[in-house]
Amino acid sequence: MHTIEGGVTAAKGFLASGIASGIKKRKKDLALVVSLQECTFAGSFTTNLVKAAPVLWDQKLVAESKTVKGIVINSGNANACTGKQGMEDTKTMASLTALALGKSFGSESILVCSTGVIGVPLPMDTVTKGIGLCAKELKEGKEAASLAAEAICTTDTFSKEIAVEVAIGDTMVHIGGMAKGSGMIHPNMATMLSFITTDAVIEKSVLQQLLGNTVVDSYNMISVDGDTSTNDTVLVLANGMSQCPSLVPGGPYWDDFTQAFDYVHTYLAKAIVRDGEGAGKFIEVQVNGARDKKTAQTLARSVVKSNLVKAAFFGSDANWGRILCAMGYSGASFDPACVTLSFASAKGSLVVVKEGQPIVFDEKLAKTILLEKEVQVFANVGEGSGSGTAWGCDLSYEYVRINGDYRS
């Protein structure tokens, strides 16, 4: 496996486009991702009880449809908490996109995603015109993929793309992706959208199971601010145009494909955290020696979502007590007397707690380590072989400023 250019158009037979339709002021806000051939597909969605209309639409398609043709995405308006009108507008978006692609397609062949302000009806006159224009701009190539990746952003400071290719027997298979997300990011997914395309041959049920497993170790292990959104969605489309051997669990090429698939999702998940609203630091928390993987992941997530831990990292303060405290209220069982904690960055590493006992350490060295933009926390709980990694960021004044005037 190695990385390549092309984002969501890296896989054979995928086209993309992104335009400024007028939903947002002077910024791109409407994107299409379309396959030349119909695709098997899979989806994973927000755990929030309050779900946006597009989430409900996509969940229905995942449950009832065998294949889809593409995805239409708008930014600047979440189409959430918009009642019956929101559902009608979602179906209209799907129908308009299908019609723009050809009369042989119905609305059930198009997935829909929205992101932006909650509780405001979509400006459907603008969206209607935009879909027609966006469909005319569909192209292959990395430029088209980049335009689509830009169009799905809201408070993001950069667009997020990745593509890889992996050998499946004698055939090169491609996996591409784009994502958006900066705030309202929390374990169990959040205000994030992620779209993955592949030319692999894989059945829908197998793809759905694979996505479910991947989400556990990628998007569900990130946190920016502790808020789980109404709109978060991960969608995967597979059109089979590589004509590779069919991929099945336990098959001869399964491990190679899943490694590449996991890499793409993890890369995008980490990119979302790196772009956390107002973030100055990227924090990786590795928990080892837990009773099992689930325990380790629970402990790691609890640390990255703690506002006190985030604030300490903002101040480059080696306040390890906050980390141990966050582990303690995580709900996972462990013996604090067995815990060893350390910090690391490009400037070095430092043990601050060893088997439950605090270590006298050099505060200047600790400050130097924590002043780096990327910092690691290592926690060994000394009880087993379970391990888990979570990713987060610091909490800054800028985060409050961004979200204090988000609507205005």
Automatic annotation (TrEMBL):
Annotated site residues (Cleavage) in this chain: A190, T191
Pathway in which this enzyme or protein is active: Amino-acid biosynthesis; L-arginine biosynthesis; N(2)-acetyl-L-ornithine from L-glutamate: step 1/4; Amino-acid biosynthesis; L-arginine biosynthesis; L-ornithine and N-acetyl-L-glutamate from L-glutamate and N(2)-acetyl-L-ornithine (cyclic): step 1/1
GO biological process: L-arginine biosynthetic process; ornithine biosynthetic process
Site (Involved in the stabilization of negative charge on the oxyanion by the formation of the oxyanion hole) residue list: T115, G116
Main location: cytoplasm
Record-linked CDD domains: OAT
One annotated GO molecular function: L-glutamate N-acetyltransferase activity, acting on acetyl-L-ornithine as donor
E.C. code: 2.3.1.35, 2.3.1.1
Active site residues according to the UniProt entry: T191 (nucleophile)
Location in the cell: Cytoplasm
Keywords, comma-separated and alphabetical: Acyltransferase, Amino-acid biosynthesis, Arginine biosynthesis, Autocatalytic cleavage, Cytoplasm, Multifunctional enzyme, Transferase
Pfam families per the UniProt record, alphabetical: ArgJ
Residues that hold substrate according to the record: T154, K180, T191, E277, N403, S408
Function in brief: Catalyzes two activities which are involved in the cyclic version of arginine biosynthesis: the synthesis of N-acetylglutamate from glutamate and acetyl-CoA as the acetyl donor, and of ornithine by transacetylation between N(2)-acetylornithine and glutamate.
Family named by the database record: Belongs to the ArgJ family.
Protein name: Arginine biosynthesis bifunctional protein ArgJ
Species in which this protein is naturally found: Sphaerochaeta pleomorpha (strain ATCC BAA-1885 / DSM 22778 / Grapes)
